[in-house]
Amino acid sequence: MRRYPCLLVVGALAAGVLTACGGSSGDSGSTTIVVTHGYTDMEAKAIQAAAASWNGLHPDEKVSLQFNGGNDSALQKTVAGFTAGNYPDVAYEYGSSAAQLAKQPKVVDLTSKVASSSFDWNDFYPSEREAATVDGKVVGIPALVDNLALVYNKKLFAQAGIAPPTNDWTWQDFRDAAQRLTDAGTHTYGWAYVNDGSEDTVWRYLAMLWQAGGSLLSSDNTAPAFDSAAGKAALEQLYEMAVVDKSVYLDNGNGQYLNLFNSGKIGMLWTGPWDLSSINANVSYGVTYLPGDNGDHETISGPDLYMLFDHSSARSKAAFDFVAWLTSAKEHIKFAIATGDLPLRESETKLPQYQTFLRKYPAEKVFVANLNNVKHVRPNIPDYAEVSQAIGTMVQSVLLGQASPDDALKTASSQVTSALAGS
Amino acid sequence: MTGWAMVSPSVVLIGVFGVLPVLWAFWLSFQHNDLQTPGQWAGLDNYRQLAHDPVFRESVKHTLVYTLLFVPITLVLSLLAAAALNRRVRGITLYRLAVFVPVVTSTIATGVIFTWLLDPDYGLVDTVLGKLGLPTSGFFSSPHSALFAVVIMTVWGWVGFGALIFLAALQGIPQDLLEAAQMDGCTRAGAFWRIEVPLLRPVSGFLLVWLTINSLQLFDEVYVTTKGGPLHATTVVVYYLYLQAFQFFHAGYAAAIAVVLFAVIALITLVQLRLTRDPTTAGGRQ
Amino acid sequence: MTTARRRLPSAWHLVLLPVALVMAAPLIWMVLTSVSTLAETRRFPPGLPSSVHLGSYATAWNDSPMAHWLWNSALVSVTCVVSNLVLCTLAGYAFARLRFPGSRVAFLAILATLMVPFQVVMIPTLLIVKHLHLVDSLPALVLPNLATPFGIYLLRQFFLSLPLELEEAALMDGAGRLRILRSILAPLMGPPLTTVAVLTFLSVWNDFLWPLVVIAAPGKMTVQLGLATFTSAHYTNWPVLMAATVISQVPVLVMFLIGQRWFVQSIASTGIK
Lengths: 423, 286, 273
Description:
The structure holds three protein chains of three kinds.
Chain A: H1 4-17, E1 24-25, E2 31-37, H2 41-57, E3 61-67, H3 71-84, E4 90-94, H4 98-101, H5 111-115, H6 126-131, E5 133-134, E6 137-138, E7 140-144, E8 149-153, H7 154-160, H8 171-181, E9 189-194, H9 199-211, H10 229-244, E10 248-251, H11 256-262, E11 266-271, E12 285-288, E13 304-308, H12 313-326, H13 329-339, H14 353-360, H15 364-370, H16 384-399, H17 405-421
Parallel strand pairs in A: 2-3, 2-4, 9-10, 9-11
Antiparallel strand pairs in A: 1-2, 4-13, 5-6, 7-13, 8-11, 8-12
Helix pairs in contact in A: 2-13, 9-10, 9-16, 13-14, 16-17
Chain B: H1 2-28, E1 31-32, E2 40-41, H2 45-51, H3 54-85, H4 92-104, H5 107-117, H6 124-131, H7 146-171, H8 175-183, H9 188-199, H10 201-215, H11 220-224, H12 237-247, H13 251-275, H14 279-282
Antiparallel strand pairs in B: 1-2
Chain C: H1 12-34, H2 38-41, H3 55-62, H4 66-97, H5 103-112, H6 118-131, H7 138-142, H8 149-161, H9 165-172, H10 177-185, H11 190-205, H12 209-214, H13 223-228, H14 238-259
Helix pairs in contact in C: 1-14, 3-14, 4-8, 4-11, 8-11, 9-10, 11-14
């Protein structure tokens, strides 16, 4: 304990030397708000540039950026932050965290704020607005939107003599191509599926479920609805490709599929814009809508949000002003050009800078158009994490050939029923 | 009393930062709490639910299987490694450093390396096994072998830790004991097994207890490789606890899991302390 | 204590070398990745880099407050090491040699804190730190680790393994316990003290979860938090991340090498018998 005075001195020195952080509402009328995020690399530079630009324009409503340890840790850190009192004013959160965090009394209800005509809430794509709404309350402002599309290796298709995918591909076209691209001898696969049982496994299946005309839960979110003919049909599609054709590489969640794609070992991926920057320059690839039957190429989107937490009315106001500015069409198109993120607002696609965006990221044109193929969204309920676990295990067991689609559906259905009922 | 004077700083620090939080966790286990809104009293509800939870039962099974494999293998390999490193060979410091490297290596880097090494399609191990005509394994990708793959990865990661501790103990054994034995005709290996190893008892006991306590709480390595899968094959108790607390927000339920885990670990530890005749439980003059 | 000079290298190299390679493989892989280009790391199966690109180290160092993170981590880790060496030696000795009421309970309570996973005690520990007004400060990283059950338990075992005769003579002469510790026992404790020092340094240096929830300000980030800024959910710049990781692991390895000086064969003789 004789070390303690030493530590106090050291701690004080450290605190003094380092920038004081943690927002404040100064009585001189100036406010500082804390914004936590998980941006790294180019995105980090883009957000820092945006914050610097804002601080220059609004010296009395300053923004202080803090890294949240990585978006996978964001939820844990935010929850701990409420205990410790060091929660931020604005936090970047996965859309799937909204329903859980919405219960937090400190979450700022944005419903009336976004309803103002100057904010133009309906300018955001429908899936984003749905992700931000829990129980009729708007709890966040969209930060990121994406969707799943088909990304394919042009050279592999040419070498195998198969006509490359188009936006009109049917499921049969897709299955046939995958089969023809697969070569057990060289460990080459036609398609890759992320099979770690997490939401990554689930959301690809959901796109197929919705294409087949099914739904995940009943309309009031109290009972499973995926144990239907549609649910079974979607599972059987996966079963046929993975177990019968053996044309699917099952990635166990560490992203190896991308390295394999780069090495010409995988022909097609279902992935989003975020993976495009990891494709090596020497790999020539194309992007199309997901395959579908009867002209239905429905896909799924996974929007992320900026959620606001209350410290004081001055800080909440500053926080909203900042996020509204950051997600405005004029500002966000700059962010999109710097990072490759898709436009958040439809009006961004009408701006002249949008052409710059398309020139820099030609492949993303399909992703932007694909946003119109998003028709359903995942239920925004607190129990979603448990539902996701059950579905993830269900899909995983079928892909691994450990269960038949019928049995897997039955198991998952009872798990979801108990998850929605109890706890 | 000198005794209390010497232990009080540690006891106070660990009491405040260790014991108090543990007591809070016990109290939390009797609540329905999502860490966001105020909790509600639940009495024994969480425990009752736990008793009927099939995933929890699975996780207990996996944890016990893992521990029964990990602890003995690591103990034996650590001892052998320490014996090998207890030599005056040129460059021995570098060898010791190399054995220690896995302990230092971040879990993420270890996870990446092992998922590549043990990849069923492209990994080095299956490629070599295939060439030698031996059966290959799905390792992390198959529900039947995933837990064993985790054992391999964690044994590799902990042997250096055990070797360091055994080595420290071996360094404390006076050389003249060994020289006397060898003059009496004992071989070097004989001297090792019959003189050095018995003298390692307090430290072996420590490692047995330490490794057991840690392996029953396995989490990080599962988190960076299999995330509890495939099909819950590597869902161990603490991973299930993490899911309940930070993904499903059933913090009270997670606390109940922690309490049950604590009871099991405490019981096993007390048995181990008794078996290694540790003065804590043996009573009587130390 | 002379050893016969040998001309030929020892046969032990045949055993130690392959073992060392297996153990050091990830570090070797980390270094190889850190000198590859980004495109080279995005292949599978991985291959050797075509040439040594040191740019990633420059990026890792210049594009981030790496030096600051290293300083924060070093400050916290070294403080904890010094504190543990003192406090755990005292406590370990007392638990090993002294009989005082409640010692068994105290020791078991200390062990008990090891039996609950950190995910569960994280929140209440945070609450305690908040009541001490230490949230988002370096002392919050130090305080919970000033004395660790590991150090106490390990040193207790080592004290137990020392023959009582060493102390008995001095005790009969009326020497105090601290004096005995300092003059008689400390010189024999090189290896275990080094072990406690190195492993305490390592565990504090590598801690991620506690700094994650306690620290918010960028200026107080430790090296593990800093490493997270090189990776993201979907995009990882592997060469730069590995370069940063290698940089972050160097201090621990250096600590280990320094500690080796004290890792010497005990010269205690049992001649007292």
